[in-house]
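To: structure subgroup
Subject: Chain for Friday's discussion

All,

I'm putting the inputs and outputs inline so they're searchable in the archive.
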Amino acid sequence: MTPALKPQRTGPGGINAAISLLLLIPILVPLFAVALIWLSERDIARASEDRVTAAARILSADVRNLVGSTLDRLRRMDEELGPDPAAFMPPPAAVGEGLTQLIDATGASILRDGQRGGNVSTNPASSAAFTSLAKGDPWTITPLLGQAGALRFFGIARRLERNGEFAGAMTALIPADTLSDIWGELELGPESAIGVIRDDGWLVSRYPMPGEGLNLSNNQLFTIQLPRAPEGIYADAVSPVDGIARTIAYTSLKDLGLIVVASRARSETTEAFWERVRSTSLVAAPVFIAMVALCGWAIMLLRRHDRSRAELQIALQQNRVLFQEIHHRVKNNLQQVASLVKLQQAPAQMKEDLIRRIAAMSAVHQHIYESDQFGALDAEAYLDKLLAGLRDSAPPKVDLDWHLAPLQLSPDQALPLGLIVNEVVANAFKHGFPNGRAGRVSVSLERPLQGNEAILSITDTGVGMSETPSGGIGLGTRLIAGLSQQLEGKSTTTRENGVKFELRFPVNV
């Protein structure tokens, strides 16, 4: 009874490995997407930093132009005041431009806000700017001041000298929102900010404008960043002005005693990042869903293929078992035929020849089911077993040796080849060594490197073969000739110092 067969699944290197790889794709693709998103975030942040840094440099150039042009205007006004401080009269240009202060050496106001005379709300002589000019500074910049009407402003003040003596000060009052046009051109976002700060920490100008003047000397810009480098970029978690988190780029203008800053809200970068994520997701999500569907479909096909392959393996193994069973039964039947021959009333030599030929045929089937080879048969192993059996039946003083090259034959070729070897060797034993003659029988099977034929050679050192008593050709010779034709080969027999039999036949495997 044929044993039950179990399907053999493919190992890690086969379908299961392919399925595992397909299952990894839905995991690896999101990881790859996360890596791309992380790189995208880094690129967006870097682009934002580059943009803020460029804005700080543009702002520094504009501030230099503003300060330079204002000082040049004050210089021209100074030349128009005349040589006598007591007779200072505001030039017409100063009155026309407005927001200009002219103060004498005592701190008395000569011109305020474009108007002749008038008193400032505080004593100019007590201000830090007036004091620094009186001590010899050629010019100075005031921090963010109070209001002139509804307008906030800061000032650029110039020292006035006559005959080498301090003669007063002239101040150009500049609206604090003068940075608004630059802010709009930089386009850093609605929550961005730009500003100008004195090197002592006092805020000079900012847009958007703060509610009051500020001293930022305790901010990390002065405590950490400026000691490290005169320009750079950093992140501020909370702005001291409005509490907004920003990325800030700064540039120190040491010759002017100013630091300019340009900042962009970090929410702008975050929003740009999420906008890119959303746009990428709109494209990537359908692709990912399609990829998952394709992976599932491929896994289903692979599993179906695996089941079909397992079923084919079962069918193949069943066929192998059936073939083995058939060849085993044929071999047993041939042995039974040999046993029946022994029981027949016939000459002993005839029965021996028949049994020997049946054994040669039986050996083919035995070798097939033992080696599990159905399409190609190992001629070397098969003939080795056959010749070993013939050696047991050799005459006492006759040696049998063989040299067999590896050769694959089909079962249809192996059977006639085995019968030929059996017949020729048996004939050599029977006819070549009468009366206890000693000698040798040699068998060789070769396959030349060139061509597709094999050569079987059987030689003996006996007395040679003789014709049958009736003068015809014996059964063995006719059998050898017929088997040679079955092999589509050509055989020759040479009688010289014994007998040499040679058979050349094509190899189909």
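Points worth raising on Friday:
The CA atoms of residues 18 and 302 lie 8 Å apart.
The radius of gyration is 57 Å.

D.
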